[in-house]
Amino acid sequence: NLSQKGIVVFMATVITGSVHLWVSAFQQHSPILAKSRTRASVSYPLYFSQRCPTTTNLSLGQSMSMDVSHTAPSTLEPYRIHISEALDSLRRDRHRIVHSLRPTDLTLAHASVSFESTYTRLWSRTDWERHCSPSVRRYTRHLLCWNLSSTARRVFPAVCVQALWAAAVTTGVRAFLPALLVGSGTYVGAASILLGPTVFLLTLRANASLTRMLAVRAAWGKTVLHARTAAGLLTTYLLPLDPRGGIAALRCLCALGWSMKARQRSEDDGDVLGALLSEDEASWVVGRPKRDVALLGRVREIVARAAAMEGGIDFTPHGLLETALQDLDGCVGACESLYASPTPPTYTRHTSRVLTTWLALLPFALVGIFSPLAVVLVCMVASYVLIGIDEIGVEIEYPFPFMPMQQLSTVVMDDVIAQLEGAVFMPPLP
């Protein structure tokens, strides 16, 4: 029995060793596995030397391959000087974008910007204190600034048309159709019955438009959050393994907000991409149909390379990075869906037809009750209120022209840079 057990153990050892040798030989001669091993030796733009030739003699635009096929260090200490240099370069590029390339939001719908508190910028504590001031002070301020209202400017032509129509109806009925003055009470009752459904249609439309606007704002808020999360994961897990790949990925995240803004506002973000990315990367991204999606694809490719190398990113942080990138993809897709799909136009047309019909019949109901001047004034007030609600619904249904995308894009970029700064200047543990 002992001899039989020894023979079994000996045969198992021989078989195991043979399988191990066979697998090693296959790995050495397999082109697929050889390619996967060498994927870690990649070439990224040398952001470390851009306008900072203090630690290296390579010129701007050059690339340098970094062989990280061995187990990379788990801290930034070996590359701290180079990463600090890349951080300084990124700060200068940020200053150039904010103060030279995009000092103002040129595509903002300035006609929608109110003199008072506005949704076209990010609010501060001062804005909230002014907005939540006591009711008497707030109402007084709103009434005094009525002539500066953006909604009033857009509604004013329609109100003038309604006033002219009311004056024409009042004059014509009193001159040529005096019989209509007898049953004015019946006309008022009919107008009151039709008012309820009209206001209900306007309310539903305004609520649907408000939901769309809040969805766009929520998507941009999640973009800021997920970009900050992705940047933190990149600086923690990817940067120590592949500094050049990490810096390239962080720069792509910095450009993400500007590319989203450009696609939603029909802008050209080529100058911003040229400032943040290398020439080859910028040319590739500009050539893609969806530049924001291309930027996320570039980050995903860099992360996949780092995960494939020996001693690369572990499964758990790799999954977290993929989740963050997937969330960013979801934000881009949400904005894309809202941009391409409006509130059903049939509902908008029906609401407009019901509203204009009611306003057209309103002077006939009032002509036998009020004086001509009073009829005109009542019709003007009614048209201002109802058309104003409809105009607000139309405006916020398409919120992209007046969303604070300039500030949000800057926030995305600043949060990414802040994550890199935190990794560079984080003190060691005591």
Produce a short descriptive summary.
Helix content is 72%, strand content 2%. It is built from 15 helices and two strands. Residues 26-43 and 48-73 have low confidence and may be disordered.
Protein structure class: mainly alpha
Taken in chain order, the helices and strands follow as HHEEHHHHHHHHHHHHH
Oligomer: single chain
Average pLDDT metric? 82
Q: Give the % helix.
A: over 70%
Low-confidence residue ranges? 26-43, 48-73
Major beta sheet, strand line-up: 1-2
| Overall form | elongated
Got a strand count?
2
Q: Main β-sheet: number of strands, strand sense, barrel status?
A: 2 strands, antiparallel
Radius of gyration: 33 Å
Please indicate the percent range of residues in DSSP E strands (runs of 2 or more). under 5%
Number of helices: 15
Rounded to the nearest angstrom, the distance between the terminal CA atoms is 61 Å
